[in-house]
Automatic annotation (TrEMBL):
GO terms for biological process: aromatic amino acid family biosynthetic process. Residues 1-67 form the DAHP synthase ferredoxin-like domain. Its EC number is 2.5.1.54. Gene3D superfamilies: Aldolase class I, Phospho-2-dehydro-3-deoxyheptonate aldolase, domain 1. It comes from Clostridium paridis. This is 3-deoxy-7-phosphoheptulonate synthase. Pfam families: DAHP_snth_FXD, DAHP_synth_1. It comes from the Bacteria.
Amino acid sequence: MIVIMNNKAKDDEIKKVMGIVEGLGLEANLSRGGSFCVIGLVGDTSIIDGDKLMAIDGVEKVLKVQEPYKKANRLFKPENSIIDVNGNKIGGKNFAVMAGPCSVESEEQIIEVAKKVKESGANFLRGGAFKPRTSPYSFQGLELEGLNLLLKAKEATGLSIVTEIMSTDYIDVFEEKVDVIQVGARNMQNFDLLKQLGKTNKTILLKRGLSATFEEWIMSAEYIMAGGNENVVLCERGIRTFETYTRNTLDLSAIPVIKKLTHLPIIIDPSHAGGKWWLVEPMAKAAIVAGADGLMIEVHNDPVNALSDGAQSLKPEAFDDLMKKVKVLVELEEREL
């Protein structure tokens, strides 16, 4: 349920509505904009008498929200959320680029790639320290050593770190060392993990599950937000379909759908979607035009010998060429990189 106040509503009228709601044991979330004021009600709203709320001065409308997600719902917060990570903003008119190798392999590798992607214009360094692999015999990542190498790359470049968490066991370490905590597709519905991440104040990058519907994906974001952490960024990385030529199928419709249903930023990962390096550029450009708030691109200095996902990784030179085109499109869309 939401309560829409009219544009002449006074502060004491707004406080009165919130006081009534909170007095019934519900949560009242206030969202203000230039021409609106919305109070979102979270909890068992069946006990609320909408007619009584309508009788309060300043109240314009009382609407029931049909969707199961509340805090992520655009009805609760009409303006776009903008997430600030060390001065780098995601959402609104801001466009973010997260780039780096699939896996952190060595100090030399991660620092070299970090310097290259920064020179090209990326504002976040992505890199996997803990790797969820389909095969138990595949490279599983350097784990805590990998995190420390990411920190060295951050010290060398100033880029904020984006890396994936696999378990609740590492939340304290990630809170201390990581700027953006990524929840991978396979963990999208790891509800224990989502609940714990809701207790942090770190930005969470939530990837869409392999076969997740939009509602399932948004509800996973709701788990995090319900815990108190509203710094959530969604990431479309392709879904599983009958097509086998590409690694996954990039669902570009996710961009306008997510923006219609929620106020959360959404970025696109064309690397995992296509699984082939030459698909990255066209899919990245399409994502920008469709309204994405950012890109996540895999970049490796030696893709042929990469320990994971070399086939979908761009060489630094190719990434630099892509970024020149990205900057043009971002400017045409009246965004800022």
